[in-house]
Predict the structure.
Amino acid sequence: MSSQEIPEENLPSTQGEAHAGAVATADPFADPGLPPHEHRIQDIDERAAKRSERVVAMLFVLSMLATVGFIASYVTLPVDKNIYVFPIGHISALNFALGLTLGVALFCIGAGAVHWARTLMSDVEVADDRHPIEASPEVKAKVMADFREGAKESALGRRKLIRNTMFGALALFPLSGVVLLRDLGPLPGTKLRKTAWSQGKMLINQNTLQPLRPEDIQVGSLTFAMPEGMKEEDEDFQNEIAKAALMIVRLRPENIKDKRELDWSADGIVAFSKICTHVGCPISLYEQQTHHVLCPCHQSTFDLSDGGRVIFGPAGHALPQLRIKVNDKGFLEAMGDFAEPVGPAYWERG
Amino acid sequence: MSTATDNRRKAPAGERVADWADGRLGIYSLAKANMRKIFPDHWSFMLGEVCLYSFLIIILTGVYLTLFFHPSMNEVVYHGSYVPMQGMRMSEAYKSTLDISFDIRGGLLLRQIHHWAALVFLAAMMLHMMRVFFTGAFRKPREINWLFGFLLLVLGTFTGFTGYGLPDDLLSGTGIRIAQGLILSIPLVGTYISMFLFGGEFPGTDFVARFYSIHILLLPGIMLGLVVAHLILVVYHKHTQFPGPGRTEKNVVGMPLMPVYMAKAGGFFFLVFGVIAAIAAIATINPVWAMGPYRPDQVSTNAQPDWYLGMSEGIFRAMPGWEINIAGHTLVLGVFIPLLIFGLVLTAMAVYPFLESWVTGDKREHHLLDRPRNAPTRTAFGVAWLVMYGVGLVNGGNDLWATHFHLSVNSVTWFVRITFFTAPIVAFIVTRRICLGLQRRDRDKVLHGRESGIIKRLPHGEFVEVHEPLSQDQLFTLTSHEQPKPLELEPEVDENGVTRKAGASQRLRAKLSKGFYGEGTHIPKPTAEEYHEITSGHGHH
């Protein structure tokens, strides 16, 4: 809109003029004081102000409609209906409808309020005084005097027996709270050293739940196993599998670089703990050509053809190997527990 | 009518209610000080509001979620409406999260709003702290409020993490497992803390219930108290303002709370809520049904924490696996050192205001903000910190960088190992130089005016660009900042001839102060004489 349409009497007389109360000084960098208020179109043209009013009201009405839409979606849309929305893909129709209507309902309230504030409420900047946070010397003196008075009346400084026993009592009683925390959990003991593996337990395939035979394991495949006798329904299954999880690969015996690894293998089949020695994620990525395994959490990389040695990443020690053999029925079985604790290192590990 | 002794018109109902409340709460005195309280205006001041509003949204949606979530690790077999999971064993926590997502109308929406708002909350806190840091708003009298804000960031991170662990899905369980591995690395007490936190071995059957009470009660309770204290201090100190004409250390220039900021800030709550609701409608977050229930021997690839733990994740990924075995004990440095570094990086934030005030010897109140360029050393520290944080964050997704940009994950990690230490130094030097460059530009602008873009041809054929002199408002704004001098050590021999050696800390302080304010840390502001000399007109341009 052009300025000709604005009634003459509404035009501000001061707009764009020099600061009120500005002092002319020789210093070009002196503070010129608050700049004059610049009028908005709504301040001088009632029609513009009316337009702003209508915009605000329209936003509020839109919000009401969106809330009605929210309730309507809640009532009418089935909870399990999926729709295709470009470019997001298949999503829950109800979630989409509820979220958008709620979003619009809220956003329009906000937009209306902000537009109202920006166009119709006063935008004159005013200055308020600040007061120092620190108390004046008189106030401070009064407080100090009061404090001394109070301290003297309590006689805390003079009656040392009271003071010392009180501090003693106050210092001791929180111990009750500390003691109460004792039963949060058991002491570590040797729990982290033992797993469910022991002499003679067969290696059970995690997928088929059948005992593994050497011929089930091909070069280049990665098999996960758990000890015989463990069931998903067991109460301590999660705790046990967190330590006992095993990964099995077959290598050509001549490719095994580590002597002990070769000794502990059966027909070139080696069994390593699946739990990363960094912070305990399950290792799941296997490179068939190099026999490296990679932990997907922090990328620690271990060489399964070289005693589970760490070849990259933040893990601090090799993956523990489980000593296995083929028993007389032709199944793979453990020859004992792991020789060292599995999983992340800890202070008592040694 | 004859009994009426009081002819005065009865006060309106609202006023009578207010009178009633005033007689009991003294609200008129409160309103006198605060109803027309002045708040300065600047877009960056709304970052703190985003924090507050996302926090409120988290509380509102969180209360709703507690109505349906079962914080229990009891194992159940799923028979709900999500077909792919039917017959699977899972914890009640996971099952109730699936129910919230698939059976309760609007449950998925509120879950997603809750999670999105948490991400926004942490991001807004970081941005808000950056604003406060780079403008020097943390200086006296606001150091304690900086600490409150810092605590909110730390507690927000822990609250986010404990919430992330509650659904007991494969991803969240992996996150908890990693945290347990970190705890184990703490010398002497690690295993004890782990056993006590998890009620025995990991995962046990307790942590969901325990994390639940920490997540919904303990930490948010403390945070709510801190938020209230933070706001009370904002009101008490009155807001800082950018320098400009009419703005001084002794006043606050802006618009009143009622009505402008009630409408603007109140409206802004709805804007933030509306935007987050819309995001939750169109962008799926944490689709727990895609991960499956937690099993400690299973994992999904590309496991990523929420963004605010990305930096710590990154340094855990970058650290070489150092382990020292002595006398039957293991020092798990490969895990413990990153844990310490993470703590140090955070602590650096907390102590900075006190450090700066000690080094610069500045104990005055500050209510006018610095432009970042006018405090080059501080700005450089801030940018160096951010670069260090950013490098850590990059490594938090080193696998994603590797797969998306066809790089070797080992090279990405090595790059981060080196740049984590070198990049902040480079950033420090570069930032300081940029700040000085900007100061130089301000100086030129003050002395020679603004480049108007108008090319003028002089009578003898030369082309010059017309420079337009700045208004006094602009001149004042560009020159009103302080340029402090570094602290000097007191002379070793005073006027009475008594020798007095400065202590080591005094000497360090003087040295640091020189680094902050000494030579080469600022471009001298133009003086009035220079200005007059140049503008008195000698055919300059």
